[in-house]
Design brief:
Blueprint (H helix, E strand, L loop, with lengths): L4 H13 L7 H17 L9 H4 L4 H20 L3 H27 L5 H18 L21 H27 L5 H20 L3 H27 L7 H26 L11 H24 L7 H4 L3
Helix pairs in contact: 1-9, 2-9, 2-10, 4-11, 5-6, 5-8, 6-7, 6-8, 8-9, 9-10, 10-11
Length: 316
């Protein structure tokens, strides 16, 4: 319900009802504000609002300070390329979340397979690369020009063909694995879902809604689900049921995500040309990026198999 359906429902909405709109309200507020920005803050429940985790490492003090310092300096002295870095860091983070789901399902199912990892990455990354060769690609998400585009119809067609070959090979792989007795619908869906969403959005999407809305919804709502489940399993005294946990998670996302959306619209300068020249603007932008990049770093810690609470995630 959280890992598969949201992305496909968002695909249906964006292509059926919103193809002629560049940025309708449901995308800008619901997707960008409450879900994309909001899901970042739900990580607090596994870190700063979890005393055992918060006190386990100095990283929870050091990382935000380093992030704040780096982006404040970058903004002040020459922000060229900064929003490009932020955009591609988001792409990397999104793909890694799907990789994490795939590895999670491998741990719950039969013998893990590195081949499954390869197909997950290939079926996500090829459409992303292909998008850069489209002549009608939208240039940016944060700034007006934060993607490194190189329109080339032949290169785009080659990527589409490569995706078709990889997809066919993956189907053959799954049929053979299923025939061998490895019945893993969760793992299969953890590859099929991003492969379908990424290929449809990056091959056929023409507006922010048709390209980014399904990606944002799929990523953020899936995170709500997995965060709610992890809270139920790792902090059962505070979150005895999944419904209670996910309700608090979504509430956190709505309140703090909505606040960040307002802050972003009124305080952040997304121009990607030259130094800001303003200490206040630099400090504000550095502060704005702390939650996002702390989320990236902390996710790489709390969801790892080596994390002290990871064994609890494998218990029903």
């Amino acid at each position: 319900m959280f890992l598969v359906l949201p992305g496909f429902l968002a695909l249906a909405y964006s292509f059926a009802f919103a193809r002629d709109f560049q940025e309708p309200l449901i995308y800008s507020v619901l997707a960008v504000g409450f879900i994309e920005s909001g899901h970042v803050y739900t990580t607090f429940w596994r870190t700063y609002l979890h005393p055992d985790e918060r006190n386990s490492s100095r990283i929870y003090v050091v990382v935000p300070l380093v992030i704040f310092g780096v982006f404040t300096i970058w903004m002040f002295f020459g922000r060229i390329g900064m929003w490009s870095f932020v955009a591609y860091a988001n792409v990397f983070h999104h793909v890694r979340q799907y990789y994490g789901f795939n590895r999670w399902y491998q741990g719950l199912g039969a013998k893990p397979s590195r081949v499954s990892d390869f197909f997950l990455y290939a079926l996500c990354l090829v459409p992303i690369v292909a998008y850069h060769f489209r002549s009608d690609a939208i240039k940016g998400y944060y700034s007006n020009d934060d993607l490194f585009l190189a329109p080339h119809p032949i290169a785009f067609a080659a990527c589409v063909g490569l995706f078709g070959v990889v997809a066919f090979a993956w189907i053959v792989f799954e049929i053979r694995r299923w025939s061998a007795g490895a019945r893993e619908p969760g793992r299969v869906l953890s590859i099929l879902t991003p492969a379908a969403i990424y290929s449809i959005c990056f091959f056929y999407g023409t507006t922010l809604t048709t390209i980014l809305f399904p990606l944002v919804i799929s990523h953020g709502v899936a995170y709500f689900g997995v965060m709610g489940e992890s809270l139920r399993k790792t902090q059962s005294a505070r979150f005895p049921t999944f419904v209670r946990a996910v309700t608090i998670v979504i509430g956190t996302a709505v309140v703090l995500g909505g606040s960040e959306f307002y802050f972003e619209q009124n305080w952040i300068d997304f121009t990607d040309v030259g130094p800001s020249g303003s200490g206040v603007a630099s400090l504000v932008t550095g502060l704005y990026l702390v939650p996002l990049f702390s989320h990236f770093v902390f996710d790489a810690i709390i969801w790892r198999r080596k994390h002290r609470e990871s064994r609890l995630m494998m218990v029903s």
